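--- STAGE predict ---
source: upstream dedup step, 1 unique chain passed
mode: sequence only
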Amino acid sequence: MWVVAYTLNSELFPTSLRAAANGWCHNLIGRWGVVLAPWILGALSARIGGIGPAATALGFVSYLAVPLVWFAIPETRANRLDQPA
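--- STAGE serialize ---
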């Protein structure tokens, strides 16, 4: 997931803003995942009946982001990223 997030940040933001974009991504998306995932995994494993199926279900949640990335994020091929739009 991190590779995808950092790649998107590199493609969507000009060089001067990439570090800030990666920081926002890491702190807003990543840290919430680190904090909430154990709680969600525990609750889901109690409902499903095991840690294996719960971890698998939790892992597949990241695939929900694929349509968002595919349709909502603009294409940057052949665009100059060093100048604001």
